[in-house]
Write a structure and sequence with these properties.
With 286 residues, the protein is an all-alpha fold. It contains 15 helices and no strands. The chain has helices spanning 2-28, 34-60, 63-66, 85-90, 101-115, 119-132, 137-149, 153-165, 172-183, 187-200, 205-217, 221-234, 239-251, 255-267, 273-280. The longest helix has 27 residues, at 2-28. The chain is flat, with a radius of gyration of 41 Å. The N and C termini lie far apart (112 Å).
Length: 286
C-alpha cells in the first residue's frame, strides 16, 4: 500500500514539475496582443525607412549634380551707370549756402540720408531745399540723382532739366539725364545728352563708353566702335570698352581685331570675355 502511495506521489510530483516548466517558458516567451504587435511593426517600419531614406535620396540625385556640377557662368560687369551716383552726391556733403541756411541744412541732411540709403528721407530733404530756394539748381540736381536711384526716370529727367535750365555750373546733369533717358529706353535722347556732356567734358572715358553702348543699340556699329576706341584712348585699361569693341569688330568681319580686343578684355579681368574667346576665336573647337 505504501508502495502504491509512493508511486502516485512520484507521478503527481513529475506532473507538477511539467506544469511549472511549461508556465516558466510562457513567462520568457510572452505572447503580444494584436495592438502591441501592430505598434511594434509600425516602429520597426519607421526605423527602417529612416535608415533607408538618406541612401534613396543620394541615389535619386544624378552624380553630375552632386559631385561634378559646373560653376555658374560668370556674369558680365554692368554697363551702367559708369559714373556712380553715390560719390557724386557725396561731393555735396559740405555744401555751403551763405544766403540761405535752410537750403544748406536740407542739402547736407539729404546727402547724409542718401549715403545711408534712406532715399525716401533724402528725397524729402532735397525737396525742402528746392522749396526754400527754387532758383538754386543744387536741390533739383540732387533730387534728380535720388529719383534716378529709385528708378523714377521720368521725374528724374524733369529735375535734371530744371537744374540745367537754372544754369548749373557743372555739366554732370547732362550725363545723368542721358542715363535716365537710356533707362527709359529713349535711346535717341540719351545719345543727344551724352554728346552734349562730351562737348563739355571731352576727356571722360565713361561718357564715350556709354555713348558707344547707345549707338550699338541703334545699330550704328561704326560710330559705336569709334566711341569705344575713344574710351580706350582716355583709359587704356578699360576692359569693358575692349570687350564691346571686340564683339562689334568680330561682327563686322574683323576676326583678328575682334579676338585681339577680347583677349585684352579677358587679360584685364573681364571674365565673360573668355566665353566669347572660346566660341569665336578658338581655331580648333572641340
Amino acid at each position: 500500500m505504501l508502495y502504491i502511495y509512493i508511486i502516485i506521489g512520484t507521478i503527481l510530483l513529475i506532473f507538477g514539475l511539467l506544469i511549472w516548466l511549461k508556465r516558466g517558458n510562457k513567462e520568457f516567451s510572452p505572447k503580444l496582443s494584436l495592438k502591441e504587435r501592430t505598434e511594434l511593426e509600425k516602429m520597426v517600419e519607421k526605423e527602417v525607412k529612416e535608415e533607408v531614406k538618406p541612401k534613396e535620396k543620394t541615389e535619386d540625385v544624378p552624380i553630375a549634380e552632386v559631385e561634378f556640377s559646373e560653376p555658374a557662368e560668370p556674369k558680365s560687369k554692368p554697363l551702367f551707370p559708369s559714373k556712380q551716383s553715390q560719390p557724386e552726391v557725396s561731393r555735396f556733403s559740405t555744401h555751403i549756402d551763405l544766403e540761405n541756411s535752410k537750403v544748406q541744412l536740407s542739402i547736407r541732411n539729404g546727402v547724409n540720408n542718401f549715403i545711408s540709403e534712406d532715399y525716401k528721407v533724402a528725397l524729402e530733404e532735397f525737396s525742402l531745399a528746392t522749396e526754400s530756394n527754387p532758383k538754386d539748381p543744387t536741390g533739383f540736381y540732387l533730387r534728380g540723382l535720388t529719383k534716378l536711384r529709385l528708378k523714377n526716370y521720368e521725374s528724374a529727367i524733369s529735375d535734371f532739366s530744371e537744374a540745367i535750365n537754372l544754369k548749373m555750373k557743372e555739366p554732370n546733369a547732362l550725363y545723368y539725364r542721358a542715363l535716365a533717358y537710356y533707362y527709359k529706353n529713349d535711346i535717341d535722347n540719351a545719345i543727344l545728352n551724352f554728346k552734349g556732356y562730351i562737348n563739355h567734358e571731352s576727356n571722360s572715358p565713361e561718357a564715350y563708353f556709354d555713348l558707344g553702348v547707345c549707338l550699338k543699340g541703334k545699330d550704328k556699329v561704326e560710330e559705336a566702335i569709334k566711341n569705344f576706341a575713344l574710351a580706350i584712348q582716355k583709359r587704356p585699361a578699360y576692359e569693358l570698352a575692349y570687350f564691346e569693341r571686340g564683339l562689334l569688330r568680330h561682327k563686322q568681319g574683323d576676326t583678328e581685331g575682334g579676338c585681339s580686343d577680347l583677349k585684352k578684355a579677358f587679360g584685364l579681368g573681364h571674365l565673360e570675355a573668355e566665353n566669347y574667346l572660346n566660341e569665336l576665336c578658338n581655331p580648333n573647337p572641340q
